Amino acid sequence: MPLPSTILMIRPVSFGYNEETAATNFFQSPLPGKQKVQALAMGEFENMVNLMRDHDIEVIVFEDTDGNPKPDAVFLNNWLGTSPAGIIFIFPMYAENRRSEKRDDILKWLNENFKVKDVQDWSEFEAEGRFLEGTGSMVMDHKNKMIYAAISPRTNLFVLEKFAGANGYQAMVFLATDKNGNPVYHTNVVMTLGEEFAVLCEEAIEEEWELIAVRQLLESTDHKIIPISRDQMLSFAGNMLELKNKKGERILIMSRAAFESLKDEQKQILESYAKLLPIPVPTIEAVGGGSVRCMMTEVFLEKK
Predict the structure, then answer these.
(1) Is the sign of the CA dihedral 133, 16, 54, 193 positive or negative?
(2) Count of C-beta atoms within a 10 Å radius of residue 171
(3) Residue 285: which residues within 8 A CB-CB, separation 6 or more?
(4) What digits encode the pLDDT tens for the residues 249-289?
(5) pTM, whole model, 2 decimals?
(6) CA-to-CA distance for 114 and 276, rounded, in angstroms?
(7) Which of 11, 92, 109, 124 is the most buried (most CB within 10 A)?
(8) Residue 119's CB: how many other CB atoms inside 10 A?
(9) How far apart are CA 175 and CA 182, in angstroms?
(10) Can you spell out the DSSP letters for 152-213?
(11) pLDDT tens digits, residue range 14-72?
(12) Cβ neighbours of residue 225 under 8 Å, at least 6 residues apart?
């Protein structure tokens, strides 16, 4: 599993509660005071960027565009992705008011600075009501050419299989639910895949045969499984990202809430693989229903 050393992020200028996404994201909850929420989210974003740069992680920040408000623009990984094969992916988005997040200037910047062999735009499936929201919908093991995907209104099986087939991957599909039986909106809330470990909310996969299949695949690809509970999942303990900094050190990015939800034993296991970097993003988590991993798009492309 190659670890990225460069990530892209979008500075939020109109962050807020998105009613369109709330229909399928049960992690979201509105907070009073639109301007206050925006100011808090901006502060959390700047702190996150600074902390990662302090740890020698290359962070490329793009400004959100003016005009049409984009309350979820900070979650860049839902529409944009890259692969070690030199491909840029543009993904179909569930919420209509999020589709304007897709930006040609970011694609142009990637083409100018990295070696791009192909650009795949899967947006046409939006017209059919079929969605696949990037590395939110798919936790990808590039080394072993595997995709882990929890099926939900935002992760369509047909598009998933088309995407996997077009790129030479195989898909491990399962259903993950919260305590109320609702499908978890994104796979990257259920699990994190590191180079040598996997954080997995086993409680969320209620079908025993599906859980066994996921566990067997992770173990057969030499990933140590660290189980988390549904309560920990609700604190975004499944929403982490392992990166490699400029010194070649492994850094595991997680939110402060995720870190505080972990037991000492879980922290010790994770620390044996990477340095833990907890970052507080409580407003973004509460209002946006996503955490630090959702805010980062990995660049696997080779620099020019």
Answers:
(1) negative
(2) 15
(3) 27, 236, 255, 257, 291
(4) 999 999 999 999 999 999 999 999 999 999 999 999 999 99
(5) 0.96
(6) 29
(7) 92
(8) 12
(9) 10
(10) BTTB-HHHHHHHHHHTT-EEEEE--B-TTSPBPS-HHHHEEE-SSEEEEEGGG---HHHHHH
(11) 998 877 887 787 787 888 888 999 999 999 999 999 999 999 999 999 999 877 889 99
(12) 197, 198, 200, 215, 218, 219
- CATH class of the 6-303 domain in this structure: alpha beta
Give 5-30 as a DSSP string.
SEEEEEE-SS----HHHHTT-TT---
Specify the residue for token string 């309560």: 231
Domain spans of the chain, in order of start: 6-303
Number of residues assigned to the chain = 304
- Spatial neighbors of 252 by CB under 8 A, at least 6 apart, are 194, 240, 241, 242, 243, 270, 273, 274, 275, 276, 277
> Strands 87-90 and 6-11: what pairing?
unpaired
- Contact call for residues 256 and 279 (beta carbons, < 8 A): yes
Q: Identify the CA nearest to 107 among candidates 163, 62, 55.
A: 62
DSSP sequence for 248-267: S-EEEEEEHHHHHHS-HHHH
Single out the residue of 162, 199, 180 nearest to residue 276, CA to CA.
199
Q: Which residue has the tokens 């973004």?
A: 284
Q: How far is CA 65 from the centre of its chain?
A: 22
* CA–CA dist 27, 190 (Å, integer): 12
